Amino acid sequence: MHQALSIHNLIAGYGQRVLLRNLCFTVSGPAFVAIIGHNGCGKTTLFRALTGQIPYQGQVQVLGRELRAQRRPAASGLLAHLPQRASVEFSIPVRELVVMGRFRHHRFLGGYTAQDYALADAALVQVGAAHLAQQDFMLLSGGEQQLVWLAQLSLQDAQLYLLDEPTQQLDVYYRRRVFALLESWVQAHNKTILCITHDLENLAELPGYLLNLSRPVPALLPLSAATVQTERAFLESEESLHVVKWGDDVMRQGSTCAN
Ligand SMILES: Nc1ncnc2c1ncn2[C@@H]1O[C@H](COP(=O)(O)OP(=O)(O)OP(=O)(O)O)[C@@H](O)[C@H]1O
């Protein structure tokens, strides 16, 4: 049985600025992993590396397949990515945007079937956005757009989901609802989710793991109220800011993986 995700000695950054230094962690089975850390510590940079937008050193395997060797990981259903600021520059009904999540099952755009649309409608119900189905996506609020993207993403049926602050613009009700939805993707559909978030208060009750990229040597910790409390206290401390401030050459020496 392959590991859901294995990251070994990943090094990434921008030119001289190394933000991820020998990052190592393994997610053995389907799981929710919250990625936290200060602004600018390298969370989005990790996703840029995993999606091939910036080069990296090290090995990344998804279900035993070396990610670097995959030509189009999204098209093959290995990976789906929700960036921090996803935008659409043209008018499109919400339902039409959501059904595009089924693109892997179609050779040409526009060939969606009644079954595809039924799945799109069900996905909108799941995220609590059924009432938006006929509206123009461009005219929705930021939070409403986030819900619609999540509905589209769920139709992609990928093995590994990379979500960059998916609850950022949501109100308290929808934040909780979205985290419950992500939990169901893991439990009911065996997905693995890496979720960048600053929304610590919603994490304590979730099953899964926490990865604090502001730590000098980030490691996966089982999620619990105590873990969230400890990591929050660390992020609020002056000590943790120094890790970032002097990160490039003093505090954040990094270490190589144990094996
Ligand atoms: N193309 C780039 N060239 C140089 N530096 C960059 C580039 N893109 C991002 N950075 C810098 O890398 C650092 C990490 O950025 P990143 O977006 O990974 O942060 P983050 O942890 O996701 O932060 P936030 O919580 O604010 O979203 C930032 O200081 C940013 O200014």
UniProtKB/TrEMBL annotation:
Keyword Translocase: yes
Keyword Metal-binding: no
Highest taxon above the source species: Bacteria
Residue ranges constituting the ABC transporter domain according to the UniProt record: 5-240
GO molecular function: ATP binding
UniProt KW keywords: ATP-binding, Nucleotide-binding, Translocase, Transport
Known role: Part of the ABC transporter complex HmuTUV involved in hemin import. Responsible for energy coupling to the transport system.
PANTHER family per record: HEMIN IMPORT ATP-BINDING PROTEIN HMUV
Protein name: ABC transporter ATP-binding protein
